[in-house]
Amino acid sequence: MLSGTALFCAQMAAAQDVTLVLDDPELRSVVRDASLTLQLRNDADASAADYVAAARVDYRRILTGLYSQGYYSGTVSILIDGREAGTLAPLDAPRQITQVQIIVDPGAAFVFGQTDLGPLPENAVPPETFAPGQPAKTGEISNAVDQGITAWRSQGHALAQRSDQRILAHHPDHRLDVAINIDPGPQLRFGPLTITGNTAVRTDRIDEIAGLPSGIFDPQEAERAASRLRRTGAFQSVALIEGDTIVNGDQLPYELQVVEMPQRRLGFGVEYSTVEGLTLSSFWLHRNLLGGAERLRANGEVTGIGGTTGGIDYELGLTYGRPATLNPDTDLYAELLAQRIDDPGYALDQFSAEVGLTKTIHDWLSYNVGVGYLTADVSDDLGVRTYQYLTFPVSAQADRRDNALNPSDGWYARVELTPFSRIDANDKGGRLYGDGRLYRTVGNDRAVLAFRSQIGSVFAVTADRAPADYLFFSGGGGTVRGQPYQSLGVADGADLIGGRSFLGFQTEARIDVTDSIGVVGFYDTGFIGADAFDFTNGDWHSGAGLGVRYETGIGPIRLDVAAPVSGDNSGGVQFYIGIGQAF
Q1: What's the rounded Cα separation, in Å, for the pair 66 and 538?
Q2: Whole-structure pTM value
Q3: Which helix (H) or strand (E) holds 25?
Q4: What is the distance in angstroms between the CA of the first residue and the CA of the last residue of the chain?
Q5: Closest to 107 (Cα-Cα) out of 172, 29, 60
Q6: What pLDDT, in 10s, does the model give residues 469-481?
Q7: Can you say whether the dihedral through the CA atoms of 44, 45, 46, 47 is positive or negative?
Q8: In whole angstroms, what is the distance from residue 1 CA to residue 169 CA?
Q9: What 3-state class would DSSP assign to 171?
Q10: d(CA 52, CA 47)
């Protein structure tokens, strides 16, 4: 029996040398991931008993790793100071370990021989990697079975499952024969839905928003139902759980478990740049205004404090949203917005109202259709005027980014078309604007290349007959960093007015230095033209700089330093501070 003192010594004495004897680089990586013994090398507090215990379970773990790569005749020897670990009991561990050797002989790689999987639905075929002559990796077997079950479920067979299997390894010819049967079960329909966990959002509204159909079972429809509820923002978690028994002859019951978010939220924001000055913003949000997951958001913003953008701008807005208004995928929105804008190109006092519908096609794709009203008093280099317009905005948005605040892969695109008609005059025109972004991870996942392009045009009216804030300027954080805010427009004699056409391009290389700190290099350029859809007759300017990012977990804190590269304006070095990436 090991005495208390001896046990203490055994626990304190760690291995001095742990080596892996295996030539194949790919298999070395597999064994490193599987082996607990190798992972203990990074634990300074590991005892001799820990090494013996880890080595004893490593035999099965390493063999499982070899099977995953198609090696079924391998052998594993783990020597602890020359003794096979399998012959040692953890409580009989030596007082001191100086060397551990993991010797792996993978043997020959096996290929698939017989590959029987079925029955499968019509037109469904196993993956090409699960076929005679292909590497016999265990993951390919599981993948083929999963695809077969998914094929049956997509045709309404919700309870499809693996029924039995026969897997035989032929060692002389290094072949693995696999025969797996799938029981599709009966074709089912969506059954009754039980909703639990809600306290403030009404059950009938949750049912309407989810929109779970009553027809033939479709797993994609079930996922869409859960996504609709998550999209409202009223729920912290949503779980749609399939029943495991059939009811009413051919129906699959569901339980919908929800956890609600706090109904109210208050938030604040701060951004700063040497050009645009300090921006202060705040919002108040109610996630469940009338008990049906309706959202009411009030926000205020003050910008240009201490900046060189002409003056201080003010904004007050109120937005209401009601999910599942006409059908589960169509939401109602209504917006009120009051603004005071004092920019270098114009001064504007404006009130606008808009109501419309948002149709969600997929979680990543939606479009809006609305009608709006705006009235404004504007003063610019074209004079002082008052106008009222009816607007008919239409927009579409696709978002395939992996993270909206800090994307590393994917793309984003938005297109807006806003026809407008002046109420007190016969002026009709439109504004078109597009924004596209692309992200790609490179360099061992330590760097991201980001690209943004913008295009816009005001058509069918002259610049003095369009809403002043529909015209385009370039310069500043949203277009060309390093250039003075809205410094590029259209020269009208000695005056500067907004252009009817705009192009913008931004590129960034974002490199992670540590897990929380990154550096960025960027180049921005912009174009403003006087005529609609004319991108040849106008002026360009550009800027470039460097930045630092500090990751907070909810998005990076951004500091950019930029200077002009080309153009008539030279505003010197500019600083930009904010939360989230620049685009």
Answers
A1: 64
A2: 0.78
A3: helix 25-34
A4: 67
A5: 172
A6: 899 999 988 899 9
A7: positive
A8: 43
A9: coil
A10: 9
